From TrEMBL:
One of its GO terms (cellular component) is Golgi cisterna membrane. Pfam families: XG_FTase (PF03254). It is an enzyme of class 2 (transferase). Keywords: Cell wall biogenesis/degradation, Glycoprotein, Glycosyltransferase, Golgi apparatus, Membrane, Transferase, Transmembrane, Transmembrane helix. Its main location: Golgi. It comes from the Eukaryota. It is found in: Golgi apparatus, Golgi stack membrane. May be involved in cell wall biosynthesis. It comes from Raphanus sativus (Radish). The gene is LOC108817021. This is Fucosyltransferase. The keyword Cell wall biogenesis/degradation applies.
Length: 501
């Protein structure tokens, strides 16, 4: 979609000085020399005045944010998530105007992310685009410190449950758990989808690190719960929290959702991806099918809207990518979860060779054959929960032996400081950096699909990872059926399942 040319003088009549001059020539009487000089001086003054007036219109009356938004809103989401087939310079210029109300310098990742990931074959539905836009409008109208928010909060403080719907605003508050970053991101994406389905506004408990990790996702407002909100006043919140096992089970049942429609404030704390359970609620089913015609794209599109690395994290990501990964023809991500499996490195390499993800090495030669002309380069990014053993083992294989194909393999890993105590926010920055770099891979190999870090990485990147077979070593690995988190787990939520326990 082409970006329209901005006309800063829109609505102002354009006066052509030449036209005014021509109209004076209908007089057939030849003017005197002095009158011609006077007329020329007058015309010059008028031309200068016209230019000054135009500048005044531009400088004193720039288009309002609302005017810019009304023009750009319909194309914002499509441009934001799909690369155009244009030069990087043109693409960068377009991205400066993607989201009205969001400053580029405050969140560089929002505008530069497409430079680090290949274009996805999945396109979000026009219905999803429209729903995101409607949600942004709702969040701006009902967000923190708006009159609607203040009115609804005042009723909560007074214990007044009557006429709460007058403001037209209801909320789901996501509480920051103590779980791993990946688990929290999965939970937060689920909470946002629930807010989208129930027309609630999502407010996020900021905690000590959320603003340090993620940009604000919505224009002209904030998604952070104000610190003044009475989270610690249990007397006010006793009727808002799902505080028993039975109540938690009812959450995924129709009758539970019917009761929650009358609750303006819903407080949610979870550390898992409960989107599959939302699909089990019949009243949501039709809406979900329209939002996500391809079911496995749910987290991919939610993540593209919600999770933009803050500038401090984006700097870590882009510096590492530029130094070690950018020049390779292909990027291969490998995440290793330590388990009881023996010969893990051998199985990873065998999987890579079997499916032509990694080249085989020639242990008989010290130099590549002169007849091999393939000089393609591959950068392998190894992420592991263990010390450097696995990284070093894979690196040494391709350092000590030439490849049969002649491909050049470089092996890298993030800074590994598992034995060094660091502040929690720095640990989370590193984890977010690691997740994002894995999501930028062209191919992803994992030893286990159950890591939340892995689930977020392949979900954000739109990747179906290759998963090692722990029970059948002869087949080495298999391709995941879906890029959606938890797609291979048996259902653990849903009203029917919980009732059958």
């Amino acid at each position: 979609m082409k970006r329209g040319k901005k006309n800063s003088d829109a609505g102002e009549p354009v006066t052509n000085p030449d036209t005014r001059i021509g109209s004076s020539e209908v007089d057939t009487v030849k003017p005197s020399l002095s009158s011609m000089k006077s007329m020329g001086l007058l015309l010059a003054v008028l031309m200068v005045a016209s230019v000054m007036f135009s500048l005044s219109v531009v400088l004193r009356d720039p288009p309002s944010d609302d005017a810019v938004e009304s023009v750009a809103a319909s194309r914002v989401l499509q441009l934001r998530f799909h690369q155009a087939n244009e030069s990087d310079g043109e693409e960068s210029e377009k991205k400066e105007h993607l989201v009205p109300g969001l400053d580029k310098e405050s969140c560089l990742s929002r505008y530069e992310a497409s430079l680090y990931r290949k274009e996805s074959t999945f396109k979000q539905s026009s219905y999803l685009e429209a729903r995101f836009k409607r949600y942004q409008d709702l969040h701006r109208r009902c967000g923190p410190f708006t009159s609607s928010y203040n009115s609804t909060l005042d009723k909560l403080k007074l214990g007044d449950r009557s006429d709460w719907g007058v403001s037209g605003c209801s909320y789901v508050i996501w509480l920051n758990s103590d779980g791993e970053l990946g688990s929290r991101m999965l939970s937060l994406a689920s909470a946002f989808l629930y807010a989208l389905l129930t027309k609630r506004v999502l407010l996020v408990e900021q905690g000590v690190e959320m603003a340090d990790l993620f940009c604000e996702p919505f224009p002209h407002t904030s998604w952070f719960l104000p610190s003044e909100f009475p989270l610690n006043e249990q007397s006010l919140l006793r009727h808002l929290v799902l505080d028993s096992t039975d109540q938690q089970k009812l959450f995924f049942c129709e009758e539970g959702q019917a009761l929650l429609k009358e609750t303006p404030w819903l407080i949610l704390k979870a550390d898992s991806y409960f989107v599959p359970s939302l699909f089990s609620i019949s009243s949501f089913e039709q809406e979900l099918e329209k939002l996500f015609p391809v079911k496995e794209t749910v987290f991919y599109f939610l993540g593209q809207h919600l999770f933009h690395p803050a500038n401090v994290v984006w700097g870590l990501i882009t510096r590492y990518y530029s130094a070690y990964l950018a020049r390779a023809d292909q990027r291969i991500g490998i995440h290793i979860e330590v388990s009881g499996t023996t010969n893990l490195v051998e199985q990873i390499l065998a999987c890579g060779v079997r499916h032509e993800l990694l080249p085989e090495v020639d242990k008989e030669r010290h130099l590549p054959s002169s007849q091999v002309l393939n000089r393609k380069s591959k950068a392998v990014f190894v992420s592991s929960s263990s010390p450097g053993y696995y990284f070093e083992s894979i690196r040494d294989v391709y350092w000590e032996n030439p490849t049969v194909t002649g491909e050049v393999i470089s092996v890298h890993r993030p800074s590994h400081k598992e034995y060094q105590k660091t502040q929690r926010n720095m640990e989370s920055r590193r984890a977010w950096t690691e997740i994002y770099l894995l999501s930028c891979s062209d191919v992803l190999m994992v030893t286990s699909p159950w890591s939340s870090l892995v689930e977020v990485a392949h979900g954000l990147g739109g990747l179906k990872p290759w998963v090692l077979n722990e029970t059948d070593h002869d087949s080495f690995c298999t391709r995941a059926r879906s890029m959606e988190p938890c797609s291979q787990k048996p259902g653990s939520h849903g009203c029917k399942i919980l009732r059958d326990e």
